[in-house]
Amino acid sequence: MRLIFAGLELEVQAESSRSVGSGYVLHGGTVQLTQPEAPARFFRHGWQSWSLASWLELDKPPVPIQPPERRPQADDPVYALSPRHGGSALGAVECPDGKVLLLGALAPGGRVEAHGRALRGFYESGAGDWFVAHGEEAAVFAHYAEMLAERLGRRGQSPAPKVWCSWYSFYTGISEPVIHQVLEGLQGLPFEVFQLDDGWQQDMGDWEANEKFPSGMQALARRIRAMGYIPGLWMAPFIVRPSSRLYRERPDWLLKDAQGEPVPAGINWGGFYYALDTTHPQVRAWLRGVIQRAVAWGYTYLKLDFLYAAALPGVRQQNIPREQAYREAMRLVREAAGEETYILACGAPVLPSLGLVDGLRIGPDVAPLWRNEDREDYLHDLTGPGGLNALRTSLHRLWLRRLVQTDPDVAYFRTRYNLLSPPQRQALQDLAKVAGFLATSDPPQWLESDERQALERWLSEEVAVSQRGRYRFLLGEREVDFGEWLGGRDA
Questions:
Q1: What's the pTM value of the predicted model, to 2 decimals?
Q2: Which residues are catalytic?
Q3: Is the pLDDT reported for residue 489 higher than 80?
Q4: 351 by DSSP, 3-state: which?
Q5: What domains are there in the chain, each with its CATH number?
Q6: Structure letter (DSSP) for residue 227
């Protein structure tokens, strides 16, 4: 069959097609669009929050991330060694007429790859619907987002809360005295959420307060709320470390490979960590209890991290597609947390999270430095912490704003313990305004008076944002061209 757009005629392989608005919906387990000329650039959409999303040159083959043990926490390990450029759920190419051709899955479990003149999409399991559109980039991605909203739902359409997060200042070095000191210093700054990050728990899998929080998590939530903030808490409910009590006592709860060995989810905290099988009935009951307990303590803002672990390949108790397993786990989390609890998903597969979470991290972690040259240049890993990595992928995920609140991670105002230059700090501050999610980790005690004033202005000022090009925006009357950071100005 053929699809005809203004200025473009495509050869199509699919089970069926129907027009919808300015695009088409195809159906099939595998579909293919072939255009008259081979494109030069491909839009790669990474699997989860940290995975690279960017326009890439097709004449340069993909290079695997090194070392192999880090691949599960960087991108979809199933396709880590693929010789073709591909993306999770969607892909797009630039056409000779200057417009964009997009092919996107309308259900979890899809992948799109570039094959010469063709875009080929396939579902890992069964058949499903696909959306095809050709036109101006912003319009094509907006139409795709609306199609996803119809199929998967949307949340987080009100303004995102303004968040102070402990991670990028203290990392795991938080304690009751540290938190109390920060709370006192934040008075007068218009934050809405005060979020504790990694460092409060006994271990990954043992989600109870450690010895640094002797008063317990409920007492701390009450203190945070008494100071005028919504209490927020970080957890990684789908992973477990070998040092945890849960790992020792319930090895049968782990996701296993075909040989019956636990599936590594990545390497961090000095060693490997592993995925839980979220289809196991006892794991599901435990997950529900973990989330309900955190909310009962008083934490109605949950930052849930390393979520991709529930969608890793493996042998599950329930034989269902892996992204369906993830989505069902997130549906359970949403039910346990309740509709009023804000869920920020981090390290999360993008499409299967839609409709279930309020906020979604759309790029890698930032850091008080712009680039990690060793990791990026020698290990070919653009998913690690750093300002440029966060900026690059977050810019290419802004089309998701119609579906979920988009979190590009924190901005910096401090100069203390910070290697970012003033223009680099400004770029991250502007990115947050464009994405509509304002957060920082700067302790007030680390800020000079002018830095605190700048932070307060940034949190308080309402700035109209309009997009003028792929990377070019107006913030109020000030033009910002993020293309300057990505190797060239936006056209």
A1: 0.97
A2: 305, 365
A3: no
A4: helix
A5: 2-152 (no CATH), 163-362+397-407 (3.20.20.70)
A6: T
